[in-house]
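A favour, since you know our structure tokens better than I do. Could you add the entry underneath, on a fresh line?
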Amino acid sequence: MKKLLESVRQCQLCKDELPLEPKPIIQASRKSKLLIIGQAPGLKAHDTNKPWNDPSGVRLRKWLGIDDEYFYNPDLVAIVPIGLCYPGRAASGDKPPSKVCAPTWHSKVLNELENVQLTLLIGDNAQRYYLKDKPSTLTETVANWRQWAPTYLPIPHPSPRNAIWLKRNPWFEQDTLPYIQLHVQKVLS
């Protein structure tokens, strides 16, 4: 696993499409119990080489009911985004993740994760990649989370930009988050 992660972190496959130097950000261990698959690292994650190191990460850890010590422990939590490098800015938010990362690295890394008991699919890009029978919208996918649970749990991105989505869909925080928190606690205990 160590050699594989070193190879991932040295990847340069999409360097010509990135605004900054490639800096693949991944966290994993053979012992990881919870797998988080999101879109791609943000600029702050790129700058600090630390995944989910921004307000989205703060909200995500709150949603999961875990602190930084648990979240950043690779023996507990694996973080393997669809795009491993910061993709750059778009008109609203970041650009979509590179299309080369997941097909190149995911099966290799996920095959080494022997203890994963729960996988969170954060945002539409992760859900489209892993849920082949996914409904057309993120809202429909997240609303139908029971279809894939407990193997996969599709959730919206915890970005502050999604405050309107959360306000329009209060069922997520009222009904879905308690299930997620309970499962996360079981998996990590």
In short: The mean pLDDT is 95. The CA atoms of residues 28 and 74 lie 5 Å apart. Residues 171-188 form the longest helix (18 residues).
